Amino acid sequence: MNSIYLIITAFLLFFSNFSFGQAFPQIYDLRNVNGANLVTTVKSQQGGTCWTHGAMAAMEGNLLITGNWTNSGETGEPNLAEYHLDWWNGFNQHNNDDANPVSGSGLSVHNGGDYRVTAAYLARGEGAVRDIDGQNFNAAPARKDSSYHYFYPRHIEWYRAQEDLSRINTMKQKIMDYGVMGTCMCVGFWNTGNIHYQPSTSTAEPNHAVAIIGWNDNINTPGKDPGAWLVKNSWGVNWGDSGYFWISYYDKHCGQEPQMGAVSFQDVEPLRYEKIYYHDYHGWRSELEEIHEAFNSFKSTGLDWINAVSFFTAKDSINYQVIIFDTLINNQLFDTLSVVSGFINHSGFHTIDLINPFLTAPNNSFHVYLNLSEGGQPIDKTSYVPVLLGSQSKTLVTSKSNPNESFFRLPNQSWQDLFLTDSTANFCIKALGNLYFPPQPLKPTGDTLVCNPLQTDYFTKSVYTATGYNWQIRPTNAGTITGSDTAISINWNPAFSGQAEIFVNAVNLNGDSDFSDSLDIYVHRVAKPNLGSDTLLKASHCLTLVGDTTGLQNNWSNGATADIILVCGSSLTSVYNPISLTISDSSGCSASDTILIELLDDTGINQITEDNFTLYPNPAKDQINIVLPLSISYISSLKIYNSTMDCISEIHNLVPIGNRIVLSDLQLSDGVYFISINIDQKTFIKRLVVIK
Q1: Which CATH number does the domain 610-690 belong to among 2.60.40.1930, 3.40.50.10070, 3.90.1150.10, 3.90.550.10?
Q2: pLDDT digits (tens, 9 = 90+) for 476-501
Q3: What is the 3-state secondary structure (H, E, C) of 451-469?
Q4: pTM for this predicted structure
Q5: Alpha helices, H only, 145-268
Q6: How far is Cα of residue 597 from the mean position of the Cα atoms in its chain?
């Protein structure tokens, strides 16, 4: 079954490169895709910089097709600096970080480069920058500047249409998906009007870079069959058809040359990485075809958050596996930090996000392992680079490496240092990330005013990411702190009132302990009023209730605000009358008490005696017992009221067991409550105090 599946899959993949019906439009122009222009303005190059214009035209086109230019806050059309790449590509006499001295050897400025040179410059985060940042042909612009806006292609892929055009639809699809595509040609004697065709029998190498922006399957060319690419040149709008022309599908180099024939710059975005660790300054210069496993060792220059890797692949259709290790001992890798694997369709440069990013410590080594299933491992090394594109005239460009940077192994063999094989070579494996700045500790959270705190009732926390915390309370006699890390409780001293400070000192992952903050807390205590015990009151008598007389605010449940009130039986309308008092200070802290006044008639006869209805224990905690006269066999309802006589629980149709009803798991907080029972259409109330 598996073999049949593989045969069918291979068949479909092979024939997917041919058009069936209208799978691809016969005519396609990126200047008009549903009314949108996805091609930037035709430029006019200076010197031999066509390769920079071909690359930037492709990147600009991708920024248009994705919208990443405007999404990043830029205005106008994308416009990247070809001459910053021209000066700072690292392969020329102006600058080569691997050479000693760094200037004086290599390619001539304004007269050499290709898309692999461009890829090396982009992969190490050197650019691309905007035209307004670093565009200067006559003198080198600043290499770096904090004001520069950098743009980075997450992927750069190489394609070939093949001589029989069996893979031409791959190119067409990538143009539709990712926009303008870089290519090359040989400027010579094969132009007919605005149509270029170099026959395969010609031995002339490519000497000019341009950009494909579309195609026409029906246009006649000197090639063996109709069909041509629509191409943007960099010789100004007065050349060709307003700067554009056609190249036959059957041209020797366009869409065919292995390194320059068709190059797509994909997912171009503002550079999101502040740190790029690499050893391959010049990128993909060659490959070790027999090597599948390799790793690069890096030493962290700071506290960095590593969240991606990048590498080159030399073949199409490869499986990759990346493992990042923390430790290398005796030529063995240990302590996995992150793992990611997948499949890549096309050769080129690829950026892969880590599923599990990790944090590096300053001066700590980490090791990025890469296994590629096909094509071997691309390497940087001292190499000859064409003076201009594919020219037979080549210039030696120096690369350098050091011991203990790049390692490889053959199957069933141990790791070997690549430096010992080629002292100029490194593997093209990079780690990408950002500087890690631990956030400052947020202010501890909690109430800044605490009223009448019980011994343990205050909670605070800090959301600062740290390796440790040191909490303190000031003054020390305010209480003690329990708990640790991001959450604490305060055991308040019952005798303390006034201002206290909760102070936290957090130690971050750098080992610094100067990230601190504090919270001021004001502890107010309002003495609980005492209205006395529950009492009986005849209808013809009055009762004097005394509140706070020290200047605090008195709020009685009957609406009065005086210090002293008079409650008369003649004004009461119920048998059971709870009277509450809440006193408050100027900060809003308060305390309350409640007295239950039972109204008697003038004969002093109550409707129920103490023997008829008993609660115990009182005060209660989680359970109470209700004891009734033996003659009572049924209670129609039982209700529990809070101190303000709001019903918070109600039970109906209760049958005592013996003469007792048990209420367990009360789940009542500390305070005063009233238990009301209804017997023979008569209601009786008892006061209950709950203390946990």
Answers
A1: 2.60.40.1930
A2: 999 998 876 677 888 999 889 999 98
A3: ECCCCEEEEEECCCCCCEE
A4: 0.67
A5: 168-178
A6: 64
